[in-house]
Specification:
By secondary structure, the chain is α+β, with helices and mostly antiparallel strands. It is built from three helices and eleven strands. The strands form two sheets. The protein has a seven-stranded antiparallel sheet with strand order 1-9-6-11-4-3-2. A four-stranded antiparallel sheet has the order 5-10-7-8, with no helix packed on it. Helix 2 packs across helix 3. The longest helix has 21 residues. The model has no long low-confidence stretch (mean pLDDT about 95). Bound molecules: N-oxalylglycine and manganese (II) ion.
């Protein structure tokens, strides 16, 4: 995965987590979103606004007090240490949320971080969708700076996508069924 990240700026890894953790996370995602989710906003702090023409997902932050969420976060902590050790990225923290897209919901092309901001350095998206079929759509489309398509990634169960946040505009296409994921960001501060 780290080699892919170095060579192409992003990596797609299947069977990323132990199967039992992947399975448990599906239930936890549904439950936590049911209990605590809100419409996702755009921008930060004062600029934060909910704009359904840009994104239509519901999110809730992972709470380490939940055992299954804590196991996911422990895995990401290992990944953070490995990235720092092998790539000297100086990643300091990780933030993540459960995400649900209702059928038809999308997230228009955006960046997770802007050059120079060096806020979110590495983005992760982990998918929780068993039996996802090509006809279910809902792909993550990864673009280059010049807007050519680099890759179209289906949100397959237990698949992890990781990419350099400043390098790739990306978008989430509408799906025909509910689409669950955990989106996260390694930050420099
Ligand atoms: C995001 C995002 C991609 C996906 O939440 O910022 O781009 O495939 N998610 O869910
Ligand atoms: Mn994004």
């Amino acid at each position: 995965m780290i080699q892919q990240l170095v060579e192409q700026g992003y990596a797609v890894v299947d069977a990323a987590l132990p199967a039992d953790l992947a399975q448990a996370l599906i239930g936890t995602a549904r439950q936590q979103i049911e209990l605590r989710a809100h419409a996702a906003g755009i921008g930060r702090q004062t600029a934060h606004a909910v704009d359904a023409t840009v994104r239509q997902d519901s999110i809730c932050w992972l709470e380490p007090s939940d055992k299954t969420s804590a196991e996911f976060l422990a895995f990401m902590e290992q990944l953070r240490l490995q990235l720092n050790e092998q790539l000297y990225l100086g990643l300091f923290s990780y933030e993540s949320h459960f995400v649900r897209y209702a059928p038809g919901a999308f997230y228009r092309k955006h960046r997770d971080s802007f050059r120079g901001a060096r806020n979110r350095l590495v983005s992760t998206v982990y998918y929780l969708n068993p039996h996802w079929q090509p006809a279910d759509a809902g792909e993550l489309v990864i673009y280059r700076d010049d807007d050519t398509v680099v890759d179209k990634v289906s949100p397959l169960h237990n698949r992890l996508v990781i990419f350099l946040s400043e390098e790739f505009p990306h978008e989430v296409l509408p799906a025909t069924r509910e689409r669950y994921s955990i989106a996260g960001w390694f930050r420099q501060a």
